[in-house]
Amino acid sequence: MTEEIIIAGFGGQGVLSMGKILAYSGVMQDQEVAWFPSYGPEMRGGTANVTVILSDDRISSPVLHEFDTAIILNQQSMTKFEKMVKTGGTLLYDPNGVVKHPTRTDINIYRVEGARLAVEMGNPLTFNMIVLGAFLKAKPVIKVENVKKGLEKSLPERHHRLIPLNLKAIEVGQANLEVVQTV
Amino acid sequence: MTEEIIIAGFGGQGVLSMGKILAYSGVMQDQEVAWFPSYGPEMRGGTANVTVILSDDRISSPVLHEFDTAIILNQQSMTKFEKMVKTGGTLLYDPNGVVKHPTRTDINIYRVEGARLAVEMGNPLTFNMIVLGAFLKAKPVIKVENVKKGLEKSLPERHHRLIPLNLKAIEVGQANLEVVQTV
Amino acid sequence: MAEVAERLKDIIKPENLIYGKSPVLNNVTMHYCPGCSHGVVHKLIAEVIDELGIQDKTIGVSPVGCAVFAYNYIDIDWSEAAHGRAPAVATGIKRIMPEKTVFTYQGDGDLAAIGTAETMHAINRGENIVMIFINNAIYGMTGGQMAPTTLLGQVTSTTPYGRNVDLNGYPLKITELIAQLPGAAYVTRQSVHTAAAVRKARKAIRKAFELSQQNIGTCFVEVVSTCNSGWKMNPVESNDWMVKHMFPLFPLGDLKDGGKDKTDGFNLQPQ
Amino acid sequence: MAEVAERLKDIIKPENLIYGKSPVLNNVTMHYCPGCSHGVVHKLIAEVIDELGIQDKTIGVSPVGCAVFAYNYIDIDWSEAAHGRAPAVATGIKRIMPEKTVFTYQGDGDLAAIGTAETMHAINRGENIVMIFINNAIYGMTGGQMAPTTLLGQVTSTTPYGRNVDLNGYPLKITELIAQLPGAAYVTRQSVHTAAAVRKARKAIRKAFELSQQNIGTCFVEVVSTCNSGWKMNPVESNDWMVKHMFPLFPLGDLKDGGKDKTDGFNLQPQ
Amino acid sequence: MAKVIGAVVVDSEVCKGCNLCVVSCPTKTLGLNRDVNSKGYHYSYMENPDTCIGCSNCSSVCPDSCISVYRMKIE
Amino acid sequence: MAKVIGAVVVDSEVCKGCNLCVVSCPTKTLGLNRDVNSKGYHYSYMENPDTCIGCSNCSSVCPDSCISVYRMKIE
Amino acid sequence: MGELRLMKGNEVIAEAAIRCGCDGYFGYPITPQSEVMESLMAQRPWETTGMVVLQAESEIASIHMVYGAAGCGKRVMTSSSSPGISLMAEGISYIAGSELPCVIVNVQRGGPGLGTIQPSQADYYQATKGGGHGDYSLLVLAPASVQEMHDFVALGFDLAYKYRNPVMILADGVIGQMMEKVELMDQRPRWTDEQVKEITGSWATLGKTKDRSKHVITSLEMDSHIMEENNLRLQAKYNKMKQEDVRYETILCEDAEYVLVAFGSAARICQKTVQLAREKGHKVGLLRPITLFPFPEKPIEELASRIKGFMTVEFNAGQMVHDVKLVVNGKTKVEYFGRMGGILPSPDEVEQALLQKLIGG
Amino acid sequence: MGELRLMKGNEVIAEAAIRCGCDGYFGYPITPQSEVMESLMAQRPWETTGMVVLQAESEIASIHMVYGAAGCGKRVMTSSSSPGISLMAEGISYIAGSELPCVIVNVQRGGPGLGTIQPSQADYYQATKGGGHGDYSLLVLAPASVQEMHDFVALGFDLAYKYRNPVMILADGVIGQMMEKVELMDQRPRWTDEQVKEITGSWATLGKTKDRSKHVITSLEMDSHIMEENNLRLQAKYNKMKQEDVRYETILCEDAEYVLVAFGSAARICQKTVQLAREKGHKVGLLRPITLFPFPEKPIEELASRIKGFMTVEFNAGQMVHDVKLVVNGKTKVEYFGRMGGILPSPDEVEQALLQKLIGG
Ligand SMILES: Cc1ncc(C[n+]2csc(CCOP(=O)(O)OP(=O)(O)O)c2C)c(N)n1
Ligand SMILES: Cc1ncc(C[n+]2csc(CCOP(=O)(O)OP(=O)(O)O)c2C)c(N)n1
Ligand code: SF4
Ligand code: SF4
Ligand code: SF4
Ligand code: SF4
Ligand code: SF4
Ligand code: SF4
Ligand SMILES: [Mg+2]
Ligand SMILES: [Mg+2]
Question: Whose CA is nearest to atom 7 of ligand 2?
């Protein structure tokens, strides 16, 4: 099994750390993983994206021109990455950041109202975990228990008290996945 | 005509400037010339030598392994350069600086008591011009009038008053050349 | 509501405009973080260039640091400089075109760490340039590492437990040293955290550029600044932190005025 | 005549020897020009190392400059340093082997021109090293070019008409700046032109090495020196010239004593 | 006595919502908007448009030069 | 009263004839030799061997450490 | 098995340095590798292993601090990115000339000049042909994974001490910023004073004791004949490296008709290209030089006589391609494909280039 | 005919700079080239032509002063020797990246490190393969006589402006310290403000007037696509140099069976070797690259197909030999002979090597 994922959005949306948790969870279930971010001084307020690869085999290129899954959190990223989803692949997006909704018919499309749900949860910082939950519902490539382990490993001790909140957010995401189309 | 000369002695003996005047004189008679010194921080009190090449043709290598003429002013230089005179070539030396006199039999050997004569002239700085005079007597590759012109060209204006003294020294050198052997 | 709109319409007329964007600033949104002091200082420089009417004779030297893109914002000719070398670049420009007004714009890492030699020597030669020094006690551009002016105890990404004198050395009060260089003409330390401070800083920058027209030595304006991203505070907190922690070590005010030193003291003794 | 010889024989006995060549000096004739101050300072350093019994724990850092071969003369372990970088090299050595005594030996070109940043920052960090600074107002090694400390009016091969402030800038009084760095523990300016001066200089060097054992900051000894070759005078004239021309700008004496500055002033304000 | 009244115009697209103008206003005229601009910043605006005295403090401290200040005397 | 007398030994091969010892001697004991050593330097020597008081001034200023100073008290 | 972690390439450099018993790190911030020093500072190894970590005032100071500390026989290192490495050119030449062992990490970004902070491999020449003056070579290791970032620190020190020569780890922004799973080595103790003395006691500046003559760390030699001997000694050392320490990896080269040659992260991309090409039936292999100096000449020579062509893939204007050509010496085709400015070609883009330049053409 | 003088190579650099109307020189002393600045200072050109001469605090400052002044469209230069050139690596990369014209003289001495002040050609790689980071090339001229030291200053500026690229004059201690007869060019005026504006007005920092948008001298570009374009533009320029500005000299190559390849003072020695060998009946010729970049590929390629072998003669461990091999590409033998450490081989020593390695072997 190899899952090649791009997560893309604004700098402040927790894109990189969502990728990190995903990657760490992969480690927890003994997979090979690669996490490769865009970087630069423009990250302040600019766009950010990260490629995450989970695989049972040795991972070759961290640079990809097509993805199994694209998780898209703003319009710029939609413009850039919709076309890079493999035929039959998956696109998950938060409609709040998006003006032009996806138009491809050869891929699975899901939505999650991450931003709105995060506000409802009373903590905008849960946004990325909600989206992660939705993704795991759409594509259960990682077991939630491994996400938990991943969180434990990746968060510094002093932030461990936040883990329950994060797991709750994942649940909310899982519960709120909307299917737009499946192929 | 090509004349390849090495002049070698102590730093303070005016070796480099003797070479310079020789080279400038060559220019005065429309020859090609090259003047190539040893250089380094060790020049303070250490040895100094300069290769001077006068030629009617374009000069190739400034680095030579044998010379038409060696003008030798101390023992170290004798040790180093006696063997580098071409067969049939010329070695001129000042015996005052030398313990082991030259022993080769296939070259012309001359001497000039430059140091002693300079003291006699009342000006140790004339030493190198005396030696130059002796050389020109032994090998008249340069006309004295061109040496005069060379001096005029190479000395800064304010030192032009020293030219007569220098020319006098050349005369003294010419008059005091001692022939040791000719082949 | 309509009444308010009416009233505003009355006021907001071209003839009532008393402060707007300087024409020497380009219409480009700056890449700086919200609240960054760089933006304020850029504005002041643009205003001064405009006021003095020297847009066509001013060459800026932009550094490596957060202000690396300064050339996108102030509408004059610019030369980039490698990290720390702005004073050398400015020297080259000014010496070769002495009729121009040349200024550098440098951060604390740039001016006081890697560029220390170039800074000290340009000023000691009395190069007739203006130097604007943005002291935000951190390396903003590269993500908040310790700068020469970082305070003892201050947390940065390379002093995560606070700067410690044994491990990291002292903060460097480079402006105090510069003020003693004979080639310095005018050395001042300013800030832009309040409107009053901004007005004083503008005056100082204007004075530096004015003096620079007289070729009387190097004019040096330090601006004690904030880097809220690097400091991990919001802009308002940053200003408070700066006032509380930085001002004691870097007190505002003029450090030198009146042109280069006389040469007497540096000459050979008379025969 | 015989009587004299007899008398001398009486005096010249091992037990009457009161001053001879230091055992820490190698038996190699130094390459310096006759009368060069470098030789005297080398001797003093050797004597101090001998007196303090620290030959086996002292590492010297030799510069690029006339003293580039210092390692041939003083019988200790040495590291070369690229031009100007001795303070960085010494920092590396001292930080990695804090139990050693580490000193740099640098000329004015090395320490105050190309090496300005390394000099200022090593001292500002308060590196626990000794720095010996030979200020002969010229680049001896390369044939007598202008140095940062060359006086205005002084003739060198790159200021053949005398140093001129507009063309060449001011002499740099770097020791005065160094004395203000908080990391400096002891800063003094000495000379070796008379026997009395030599004795004072030896004391200063000894003090610097002694203090250095206590790790209380950087100890810095400037020696105002002659370079008769570069100055184109004989050694005796050179000393006179130095006294007359250099001492007014570079007055002898201590500039700082008592260890690194307290850290209070450099700290964050208490909460 | 001549009274001075003022008003400001904030370029809300350029504003980064740093809040520096808000705290620098002596008359508490300004506030950050609940809405965000296209870059997601809560931009500054005249919360109390009546109180502005046109002192240009806000504009002075604004790093992004997005405030224009207008002032007029009224009798 | 105890008088102090001195003497110096100059390593004439190492001496570079710089003259610094000569001018530093308070008793004019030293002078530069007319002869030169193998490197061509007029080396320093005790011109007036009687006058040396063993003060070691000469040795202190010598850049080439070629002077050894001896001193003894005589009654 | 050692501890498993998910780490950034830059962070793992720091971790590996501490764990392999490195004595000191001297550096200056620059993107994309500032995390190396930041991680070290966060870990405070001076309180555990005793490792020294110092933020210098510049890259120049850093490299000369390394010079001083390496001269004491200690295992020290620095890291930087392209412009910073350029500033070290003089210092690196001194280190090579004085035969000091140390590790220098270059996490390359795009040049020339200030260029871009995006990844690049344009310092290949600088690393392998001596950016500084004079005849010298670094031993250059090119990691292609976070695991190799880890492994090459310890390996780098081993080789540096084997040859008394600076070792460069030539990484790039991709490997520096990427996170992968990495197996960490167990903590090794730093060399004890006794070990340092045993290993480096014949040359290091540890203080001149009565029982030996002084040690001098220097590259200076004014006697031309001795200087030439020094140069010859260096050259002999480089030849020895060529004999004993060439490292490379081949993937599917046995039956290959076409071989991609790529190092570092470009090789990672090519790995996938090989897969894509094989899926289409093209017999493509990959040769990945791990040591860029000494360059893997033998395997290339062997392949040259039996394959239809090589194509190097580089994030630069074509640098390593010349080293391949030198080895191939006309025996088969050698092409180059590359991108610059921080653009990373995707595996299929490389595949297309391969088809165009070699297979199709 | 111009004025004839007997001058040192270093001095003539200064003289030529003044006479060709150079606007500024920024430098720092280092043997064996300090006479360049000393001669300039003695001549006081600021009082005659208005040329600026400044002794900087270091080579780093020098090269960045050049950066600033060159950005103003002025014709400026610096000179140094090997270690000093290494220090300029970052600055040179910036100059190349910002496409600034200027002349940089390297009077090489032996390395690595402090090495020796004696002559060397060991900076060939540094000069031709980019000592600094990133993909860039200098146009490199290698003078073999004092006359060429003179001529290449003006030529260097012409080429620098033709390409908006830094030009390096790669000399060595032999040519720098040697005196030969030289014909000096007549004094040319410096460019007037009008000329500067005409020639450089489209890019130089002359002050932004209302009629144009601002000029920015920079090598920075964060957009990868634009950065790649910048890189491609540079590469196109280097290709143009290869088309239009290759310079070399051949001596007795028409009927040669063996050809020596040497540049700079090594070529002078080889000239005599050719003579010696011809006297003994060996058909030997000499190819002297004058531009080291762009390298004279065509003439070597042509010779490669008809001669029995090349031997490069270099004062280094064998650097240019690789460029010759790359061109020859296996068509004939390519040998190298060299000396290091400041030792200069004599013409007969080269002859012997030639006999041993090529003719005899
Ligand atoms: C030679 C070199 N070293 C390091 C860097 C990385 N770098 C870029 S900006 C900077 C320091 C920025 O700090 P400062 O000068 O204080 O400016 P600020 O961003 O704080 O305004 C550094 C280290 C570089 N670009 N070049
Ligand atoms: C990078 C570099 N630049 C320049 C030089 C040449 N150089 C050698 S010593 C020196 C200066 C010597 O002057 P100073 O430091 O005052 O020492 P002094 O010889 O006067 O004792 C210079 C410029 C060098 N070796 N390396
Ligand atoms: S990082 Fe700091 S200095 Fe840079 S733009 Fe942000 S606040 Fe300003
Ligand atoms: S040149 Fe000057 S500093 Fe150097 S040895 Fe001679 S006198 Fe001393
Ligand atoms: S102009 Fe003055 S009163 Fe009006 S909003 Fe701005 S700061 Fe407030
Ligand atoms: S100061 Fe400027 S950028 Fe900041 S909130 Fe006010 S208007 Fe917006
Ligand atoms: S010891 Fe004193 S008295 Fe004796 S020679 Fe020396 S200086 Fe003169
Ligand atoms: S001081 Fe020393 S070197 Fe100089 S003359 Fe006297 S003994 Fe000789
Ligand atoms: Mg800063
Ligand atoms: Mg000096």
Answer: H30
CA pair distance G293, B39, nearest whole angstrom: 36
- Would residue D20 count as lying in a domain? no
CB contact under 8 A, F63 and D38: yes
Residue G360: its pLDDT value, please? 84
Report whether H310 contacts H324 (CB < 8 A): yes
Task: Tell me the CATH architecture of domain H248-359.
Answer: 3-Layer(aba) Sandwich (3.40)
Strand partners, G169: G105, G141
- The whole domain housing D119 covers 34-155+165-256
pLDDT, residue E19, reads: 98
Q: Is residue C262 part of a domain?
A: no
pLDDT exceeds cutoff 70 at H261: yes
Number of domains in chain C: 1
The mean per-residue pLDDT over the stretch D53-60 comes to: 98
| CB-side neighbour CA atoms (13 Å) of G87 | 30
Burial call H288-319: b when 16+ CB within 10 Å, e when fewer? bbbbbbbbbbebbeebbeebebbbbbbbbbbb
Nearest neighbour of D80 by CB, restricted to H38, H60, H114: H114
**Predicted pLDDT at A120:** 92
Strands (E), chain C: 17-19, 58-62, 77-80, 101-107, 130-135, 184-191, 218-224, 253-256
pTM of the model: 0.98
- Position D187 in a domain: yes
Q: Is the peptide bond before G32 cis (omega within 30 degrees of 0)?
A: yes
**pLDDT, tens digit, for every residue of B90-107?**
999 999 878 899 999 999
Q: How far apart are CA C114 and CA G55, in angstroms?
A: 12
G32 touches A at CB < 8 Å: yes
**What CATH number is attached to the domain comprising D123?**
3.40.50.970
Neighbours of ion ligand 9 (CB under 5 A): C 107-108, 136
Could you give all domains of chain A from N- to C-terminal order, each with its CATH number?
Answer: 2-181 (3.40.920.10)
Residue type, G130: G
Bridge-based pairing of strands G139-141 and G291-293 is antiparallel
For chain E, the three-class secondary structure string (H helix, E strand, C coil) is CCEEEEEEEECCCCCCCCCHHHHHCCCCCEEEEEEECCCCCEEEEECCCCCCCCCCHHHHHCCCCCEEEEEEEEC
Q: Domain locations in chain G?
A: 4-193, 248-359
Q: Do domains H4-193 and H248-359 have the same CATH topology?
A: yes
Domain membership of residue C11 (yes or no) is no
**CATH number for the H4-193 domain, one of 3.40.190.10, 3.40.720.10, 3.40.50.300, 3.40.50.970?**
3.40.50.970
Contact C33 A42 (CB under 8 A): no
Q: Mean pLDDT, to the nearest integer, of H272-285?
A: 97
How large is the average pLDDT for residues B166-172?
A: 95
Residue B169, pLDDT > 70, answer yes
The β-bridge relationship of strands G76-80 and G102-108 is parallel
Q: Does H42 score more than 60 pLDDT?
A: yes
Rounded distance, CA H29 to CA D109, Å?
10
- What atom in ligand 5 is closest to the CA of residue E28? 8
Is it the case that residue H28 has pLDDT exceeding 90? yes
- DSSP states of G80-133 as a string? E-HHHHHHTHHHHHHHHHTT--EEEEEEEB--STT--SSB--TTHHHHHTTSSS
Mean pLDDT check: name the lowest of B94-98, F34-38, G291-295.
Answer: F34-38
- Closest chain G residue by Cα to residue B41: G222
How far, in whole angstroms, is CA G305 from its chain's centroid? 29
| pLDDT above 60 (res B44) | no
Give me the pLDDT at residue A155, please. Answer: 83
